[in-house]
Write a structure and sequence with these properties.
The protein has a domain at 1-69: Serine Threonine Protein Phosphatase 5, Tetratricopeptide repeat (Alpha Horseshoe). The chain has helices spanning 2-14, 21-33, 38-51, 54-66, 71-87, 91-104, 109-121, 125-139, 143-146, 149-162. It is mostly helical.
């Protein structure tokens, strides 16, 4: 397995994001030999995604997740899968993937940033900005910012309260 993963790392390091055909061509023989290896499937998904074949990437991301990706590779796969779903306009599915990913990796700044993009795309700008304010408060260490972290968190809570998706049905106006 170490040789296989070293080869995947080599292929990834040599990729040209503007011309993914050589990367895909290098990954396909590994995929043919190891079709059930979650990392091989994930790397091929990412290559197709970068090449713009997001539909193929989605199928492979799902297979990689089902095959048992773990640790940081799983986090990256969930992020890329959720982002790809967003790009395909499958916003509710994207939000569900990000919700699952954030439960598994609550401290992930990158997941929070890409989840905010999906929230924004779904017309939930207040929720998106709230998430980014929380990320700033939680993840950025800055003497200048430290003084304002409580205000950032308070503004995030306020923005979150404006999101209809967070409305408590018990507080709904019965006359509405």
């Amino acid at each position: 397995m170490d040789d296989l993963y070293a080869e995947l790392d080599r292929i990834f390091a040599a990729r040209d994001r503007d011309d993914m055909a050589p990367t895909i061509a290098a990954l396909l023989p590994l995929y043919e030999r190891h079709p059930d290896d979650p990392r091989v499937v994930y790397e091929l998904a990412g290559a197709y995604d970068t090449a713009g074949d997001e539909a193929a990437a989605c199928v492979l991301y799902e297979r990689a997740l089902d095959a048992g990706l773990s640790a940081d590779v799983r986090r990256r796969c969930l992020l890329q899968y959720g982002s790809t779903l967003r790009n395909l306009g499958r916003l509710e599915e994207s939000l569900a993937v990000f919700a699952r990913a954030r439960r598994e990796y609550p401290q992930s700044v990158s997941l929070g940033a890409f989840e905010a993009l999906t929230l924004h795309a779904a017309g939930r700008a207040d929720q998106a900005l709230a998430g980014l304010l929380d990320l700033l408060a939680d993840a950025v260490d800055s003497d200048e910012l430290d003084r304002y972290k409580p205000a950032l968190r308070g503004n995030a809570a306020y923005l979150r309260s404006l999101d209809p998706a967070n409305a408590d049905p018990a507080n709904a106006d019965p006359a509405a």
